[in-house]
Write a structure and sequence with these properties.
alpha+beta; two-stranded antiparallel ribbon
Length: 169
C-alpha cells in the first residue's frame, strides 16, 4: 500500500503543531515551585511627577500661549458674522412633489399632501410655464431624507431637489 505524499506531509505538520506538555518533577515533598519576584525589575515613581486626575490620567499643566492671534481672529470672525447677518437665503434642499403644466393637478397634489401628511406644509409655485408643488426646507440632504421616505409612500414621483432656503429670523 502506497501513501499519498500530501497526506504524509499533513500528518507531519499536525504532529509538529501539537501542544507539548511540560514535564513536571515531583519530589517527595510535593510539586516544584519557584519564586521569580527577585528577578523582576522595579520602578520608582519620581516624587515631582504630575498630579493625576480622578480617572488616573496625568493632568497637563496650563501653558500660556506666546504667539496668539486672538485680536486678528476676532476681527475676521466679526466680519464673517456681519456678512452672514445680511444673507437672507442659504443653499439647502426641498422635496418636489409635482411639476407640470396643469394647475388643477398641482392644487390637487397640495390638497392630497395636506390630507395624508398634515404636519407638512406645501406651496404651489408657478415658474412659467410649469406649476411646481414643493414641501419642506432642509439644510442637508440627510434631513430631507426622513420626510422624503414618508412622502414617497403617497407620491411616487417625489424627488429631493437643491433649493434656496429662506433663513428665519
Amino acid at each position: 500500500m502506497r501513501m499519498n505524499p500530501a497526506l504524509i506531509m499533513y500528518l507531519m505538520m499536525m504532529a509538529s503543531c501539537a501542544s507539548q506538555q511540560a514535564t513536571t518533577t515531583s519530589s517527595s515533598s510535593g510539586t516544584y515551585s519557584e519564586d521569580l519576584s527577585a528577578w523582576r525589575p522595579t520602578y520608582e515613581i519620581p516624587k515631582d511627577s504630575l498630579p493625576t486626575s480622578h480617572d488616573g490620567r496625568k493632568e497637563k499643566p496650563n501653558i500660556e500661549p506666546r504667539y496668539t492671534v486672538n485680536k486678528q481672529l476676532d476681527a475676521v470672525l466679526d466680519s464673517i458674522d456681519r456678512i452672514n447677518l445680511t444673507r437672507e437665503y442659504v443653499d439647502g434642499f426641498t422635496i418636489q412633489l409635482y411639476t407640470g403644466l396643469n394647475r388643477e393637478e398641482a392644487l390637487n397634489t397640495k390638497k392630497k399632501l395636506s390630507m395624508d401628511l398634515p404636519e407638512l406644509e406645501s406651496e404651489v409655485i408657478y415658474a412659467q410655464p410649469n406649476f411646481k408643488v414643493k414641501t419642506g426646507s432642509y439644510f442637508t440632504r440627510m434631513e430631507a431624507q426622513k420626510d422624503f421616505v414618508a412622502i414617497k409612500k403617497f407620491f411616487s414621483n417625489a424627488i429631493i431637489i437643491p433649493d434656496r432656503i429662506k433663513i428665519l429670523e
